[in-house]
């Protein structure tokens, strides 16, 4: 049996919580009884979701390191989820977009982990879940910044796992394939332009080309894996990366 606070005494923080996978995580954690802090730059959507789940919205830009000072330190469950994509060949990749993606998807998770682990260590219990991607494990053309950031996040997650182990804190990545969210809708349009094919062909022939299961993952599927990592029976699951990818990385 695992010791630690029950769901109702837990506080969770989800970055990028106003949309897609993050929103599904907020709903799943709130339904399990946690008090959820929703961190997003999309103010109206964050406020609306906070009202729905009786949570707290924090409207901040994760690209600006000062954001972290506005957030709580007493967090038991940290979900580093916010992310963005930019699709371009390396020789045309805008350096400012590369830098932005590292700040939001690597530096912000680092700043949040270092902010909340003292509380987790004091309670001798904590769960860090980093929403990585199959692109934390594999590369694809035209995604230099995203693949770089997700590989970095996988490394950061492992360090948090090693350091957190004596304190009852686990850290894992959940690494989805293509999930039905606004981020992917944008990518379908971008890939359509990059590969010169129709949008509907992008899903089957580009996005799911390597995937034995020809179906987009749903945000709720990812959130269920996140919730499992935050529940009982996972005290020994740490430093891992769990693909939720329809077999993409196996193929
Ligand atoms: P989404 O675009 O639906 O949601 C991302 C959220 O992050 C948005 O609410 C956005 O406002 C917020 N955000 C982005 N930049 C921010 C910033 N600078 N400051 C504050 N908030 C910011 O995306 P999603 O598909 O739900 O993706 C969530 C995570 O899952 C990302 O890390 C993404 O890389 C990862 N992921 C997504 C897929 C997929 O297919 N959708 C697959 C693998 C991994």
UniProtKB/TrEMBL annotation:
One of its GO terms (molecular function) is 3-hydroxybutyrate dehydrogenase activity. GO terms for biological process: monocarboxylic acid metabolic process. Keywords: Oxidoreductase. InterPro entries: 3-OHbutyrate_DH, NAD(P)-bd_dom_sf, Sc_DH/Rdtase_CS, SDR, SDR_fam. It holds the Pfam family adh_short_C2. It comes from the Bacteria. NCBIfam families: PHB_DH (TIGR01963), PRK12429.1 (NF009093). Belongs to the short-chain dehydrogenases/reductases (SDR) family. This is 3-hydroxybutyrate dehydrogenase. It comes from Actinokineospora globicatena. The gene is bdh.
């Amino acid at each position: 049996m695992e010791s630690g606070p029950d769901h109702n005494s837990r506080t969770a923080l989800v970055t990028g919580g106003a949309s897609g996978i993050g929103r599904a995580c907020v709903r799943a954690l709130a339904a399990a009884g946690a008090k959820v802090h929703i961190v997003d730059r999309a103010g109206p959507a964050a406020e609306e979701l906070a009202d729905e789940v009786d949570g707290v919205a924090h409207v901040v830009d994760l690209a600006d390191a000062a954001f972290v000072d506005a957030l709580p330190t007493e967090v038991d469950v940290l979900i580093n989820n916010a992310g963005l994509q930019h699709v371009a060949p390396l020789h045309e990749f805008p350096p400012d977009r590369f830098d932005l993606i590292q700040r939001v998807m690597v530096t912000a998770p680092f700043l949040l982990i270092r902010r909340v682990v003292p509380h987790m260590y004091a309670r001798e219990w904590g769960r860090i879940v980093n929403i990585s991607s199959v692109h934390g494990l594999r590369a694809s053309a035209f995604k230099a910044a995203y693949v770089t950031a997700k590989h970095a996040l996988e490394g950061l997650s492992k360090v948090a796992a090693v350091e957190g182990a004596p304190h009852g804190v686990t850290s894992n990545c959940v690494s989805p394939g293509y999930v039905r969210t606004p981020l992917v809708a944008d990518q379908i349009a971008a890939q359509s332009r990059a590969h010169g094919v129709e949008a509907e062909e992008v899903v089957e022939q580009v996005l799911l080309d390597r995937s034995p299961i020809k179906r987009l993952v749903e945000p709720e599927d990812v959130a269920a894996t996140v919730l499992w990592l935050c529940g009982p029976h996972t005290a020994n699951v740490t430093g891992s990366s769990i693909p939720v990818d329809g077999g993409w990385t196996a193929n």
